[in-house]
Amino acid sequence: MGYDLASPIQYVKGVGPQRARYLARLEINNVRDALFHLPYRYEDRSSLIKISQLAAALADARMITVAGKVLSAEVVTPNPRGPRRGGLRIFELLLNDGSGSLRAKWFNQAYLKKHFKPGQDVVLYGVVKNNYWGTGLEMTNPEYEIMDDGDDDTTHPSSDQIHTGRIVPVYHLTEGISQKQLRSVMYTIISSVVSSVRDTMPHEIISRYHLPGLSESMANVHFPGPGIALDSLNSGSSPYHERLSFDELFTFQAGLAIIKKGEVLEKGISFHPNGSLADRLRADLPYTLTGAQERVLSDILNDMRSPVPMNRLIQGDVGSGKTIVALLAMLAAVESGYQAALMAPTELLSEQHYMNIHPLVEKLGLKIQLLTGSKKNKNIETISSGDANIVVGTHALIQESISFKNLGLIVIDEQHRFGVMQRATLRKKGVNPDTLIMTATPIPRTLALTLYGDLDYSVIDELPPNRSPVITRQLSEKQKEYIYQLMDEQVKKGSQTYIVYPVIEESDKTTLKAAITGMEALKAKFPQYNIGLLHGRMKPAEREEVMREFKKGSLHILVATTVIEVGVDVPNATLMVIIHAERFGLAQLHQLRGRVGRGSGQSHCILLNYGAAEDAAKRLAVMVRTNDGFKIAEEDLAIRGPGEFFGTKQSGLPDLKVANIVRDAKLLEVARKEAFALIEKDTQLQNYPELRRSIEDFWGMKLDLFKTA
Ligand code: ADP
Ligand code: MG
After folding, report:
1. C-alpha 323 to ligand 1 mean position (Å)
2. pLDDT averaged over the chain?
């Protein structure tokens, strides 16, 4: 019919300029976009039930579909002289299908009156019940579709077959377009272009996994043929859905494989550390490294010795001791005559890394420089001259004005806060420097394969000895006195406490408890104790001062906001109280709790729940149940879904439109295996030019940026 995948949506029959503008809001600009705007659910309307036979459907209370003509559509006010006079308004529709009549009611939705008029053909989808008085059958708040709303396009002669009498697709809509209109447009597209969709997947792979054809899959995902199980459609796991997900995951992983292969081919630095600095540092440590730390460090050192630029992700739960591993890697770079940089996502964290590291490395006779946005960076020439062996900072490190003499190793802490682009920009400050990325939030494997699929990775899967798991409890405001008592006990035994608040100050906009008021109350309660305050609106110098005091042990209690969420390390702190714990996400709670349990004493975490929401209670229950960051991350991924978890958007990676890495975890593994094997065999995809084009289309500019990064 003259469209191809790139045709603007406007030219598809039944669309036109006005609707094209509406569709653009759904990110449907051309025919291809429309094909990938998949139904988000399906309704089985393959069997319409006659109204005269509805009584039989009463017993099992399942969803049923009836179709008929509107006899009347009125707003009624029941019992106007009753006690709720003026309150309740019900919109009532009376429907007849030739076999009988059915009443449908919508409570407090009087506006529906605008949509319906007598004579229209409508379809209702819902549960039928005997009404209150037992005088007849009715549906309450059914879903509805107006089949004939007066603007029916005659261009769709087959329209009855697409809206009823089958499993019908239901799409996400935007204002200005009805379900039925969109469905008709989709039907036009499917019937005209789907057979010309080119399948670029290698034949071997299609036959190895018995994948259905691509056109067939597209057609069935939008307009399922008879005999496909409704459940499999609604869960997105029909064979046709899986084919589309597989293609998307394969294309994604192939891009990662290309990036990774390109990096392997690049020439990087071969470090030759002699261990002199590292040995002296180790001799100075009050502990020995755990087996897991040693194993990960040797992975890193092997990478550093090799001429291929290192790109390694280190995962390790909070408190697993990533910092010392990173420092030893940096010393290996310095021993080999290079500079090393450590980039952290916040000023507080950079300052803390600096505070921890500088006494250690200065003893070794090295020079270390702190670089953050708010510090007036007077000494940046020490970086360009090569005087500074190690530079610690925020993303201020990647500013244009900063240059290194010979940057050999980059360590990025808490990577998920940085995008892929920032990582690439920092790498450009050196000539193919080695890159080490550390993340404190454990990432489920499937997500790691997506977000960090171009990296090698190692896991520090062991905590330092003598740590007992933090005991976590969920308490309510009523137990306040008990919490005070806990704090008092901490102070008496020489331990320290964190109290975390969701906001700094009280305000008219919320009823949340705030850090400043909280601190004042505590001071009144415990006048004999030293209580500090830490939040993001303080000047960095003030913050540093407070942290130093707390670290030294001269503050008994630190009242803070979530600025302390990541990385802060004070082993003597053994109690954490989180006020309004219901306001925080799982990953955040786990990070916060990770501030305690870092020493050998038994630590406690109190989650103070002021809310009543069920999903918050669910999150807090997960926290009480386990200290295992991987388990928490899995639960989090399941509760929030992959899109929100970490914001894949800011990672700079392409979006997944069809696949869902939780649901499709198995497919992902297979797609990754096949994609990496193919790129290994044929890096340039010389034998698969069409596949290569679809990978480039999917990744867009990003693939080039990665390649040259
Ligand atoms: P994270 O992995 O959360 O960044 P850190 O590197 O901050 O953890 O380490 C947490 C604490 O454990 C620090 O106080 C650190 O000095 C200590 N630590 C690290 N490794 C060991 C070890 N092998 N044995 C004992 N304590 C250790
Ligand atoms: Mg850390």
Report:
1. 7
2. 85
Cβ 591 under 6 angstroms from ligand 1:
no
Q: In testing the pocket of ligand 1, which one of 598, 600, 603 has its CB within 8 Å of the most ligand atoms? A: 598
For residue 564, the CA-to-ligand 2 centroid distance in Å is 12
What's the 511 CA to ligand 1 centre distance in angstroms? 38
Token pair 């529906």 in the structure block, residue = 112
The domains spanning 276-460 and 471-626 adopt the same CATH topology: yes
Q: 260-269, 423-432, 559-568 — which is least confidently predicted?
A: 423-432
Cα 326 to middle of ligand 2, angstroms: 10
pLDDT at 646 over 70: no
Domain boundaries, the chain: 1-40+172-196, 44-170, 276-460, 471-626
pLDDT digits (tens, 9 = 90+) for 21-69: 999 999 999 999 999 999 999 988 777 788 888 877 776 667 788 889 9
Length of the chain (residues):
709
Which residues, listed in sequence order, are joined to residue 439 by a DSSP beta bridge? 315
- For residue 614, how many C-alpha atoms fall within 13 Å in the half-sphere facing its CB? 1
Mean pLDDT across the stretch 678-691?
92
**Alpha carbon nearest to ligand 1 atom 20, residue:** 321
Which phi and psi (to 5°) does residue 625 adopt? -70, -40
CATH class of 1-40+172-196: mainly alpha
Q: Report whether residue 315 contacts ligand 1, using a CB cutoff of 6 Å.
A: no
pLDDT, residue 180, reads 83
Q: Is the CB of 324 under 6 A from ligand 1?
A: yes
Q: Can you tell me the distance from the alpha carbon of 539 to that of 643, in angstroms, rounded to the nearest whole number?
A: 34
Per-residue pLDDT, 444: 75
- Class of residue 699 by CB neighbours under 10 A (exposed 0-12, middle 13-18, buried 19+): buried
pTM for this one? 0.71
* Ranges 118-127, 237-246, 522-531, 666-675: which has the least confidence: 118-127
Q: Is the CB of 450 under 6 A from ligand 1?
A: no
Q: Say how far residue 332 (Cα) sits from the centre of its chain.
A: 35
Q: Whose CA is nearest to atom 4 of ligand 1?
A: 322
Closest-CA residue, ligand 1 atom 10, reads: 319
Residues in contact with 253: Cβ distance below 8 Å, sequence separation at least 6, in sequence order:
449, 453, 668, 671, 672, 675, 676
Tell me the per-residue pLDDT of 462-482, one tens digit each, with 9 for 90 and over.
888 878 889 999 998 888 889
**pLDDT range class, residue 80, cuts 50, 70, 90:** low
pLDDT in tens, 592-603: 998 998 887 899
What residues are paired with 533 via a beta bridge?
Answer: 559
- Interatomic CA distance for residues 137 and 104, integer angstroms: 9
Give distance in angstroms: CA of 463 to centre of ligand 2. Answer: 13
pLDDT at residue 20 is higher than 50: yes
Q: Which CATH architecture has domain 44-170?
A: Beta Barrel (2.40)
Ligand with minimal distance to 342 CA:
2
Asked if residue 290 has its Cβ within 6 Å of ligand 1, the reply is: yes
Query: Has domain 276-460 been given CATH number 3.40.50.300?
Result: yes
Q: Is 642 helix (H, G, I), strand (E, B) or coil?
A: coil
Mutate to test the pocket of ligand 1, among 289, 295, 320 (most ligand atoms within 8 A of CB): 320
C-alpha span between 297 and 324 (Å, rounded):
10
Looking at domain 471-626, its CATH architecture is 3-Layer(aba) Sandwich (3.40)
Give the mutation target among 568, 569, 591, 627 for probing the ligand 1 site: most ligand atoms within 8 A of CB. 569
pLDDT at position 259, please? 81
